[in-house]
Write a structure and sequence with these properties.
With about 70 residues, the protein is mainly beta. Helices cover about 10% and strands about 40% of the residues. It contains one helix and seven strands. The longest helix is centred in the middle third of the chain and has 7 residues.
Length: about 70
């Protein structure tokens, strides 16, 4: 089980390993324009598939908002 804090909220996932890309899918955010910070550092979008999360990582996920 992996324990994460996402935007200040504790979450648990019943998996042994989880990448940022897999987390995005689980949260239903696939295809959205996102910025993700893990433990104070930005995770580049191109690294989502390889960036492995560790239990107790702290994530901030921000979605881009369009408008005019």
């Amino acid at each position: 089980m992996i324990h994460l804090t996402i935007n200040g909220n504790p979450r648990q996932f019943e998996v042994e390993s989880l990448t940022v890309g897999e987390l995005v899918e689980r949260l239903g955010l696939t295809g959205k324009r996102l910025a993700i910070e893990r433990n104070g550092e930005i995770v580049p979008r191109g690294a989502f598939a390889e960036a492995v999360l560790n239990s107790h990582d702290k994530l901030e996920i921000v979605g881009a908002v369009g408008g005019g």
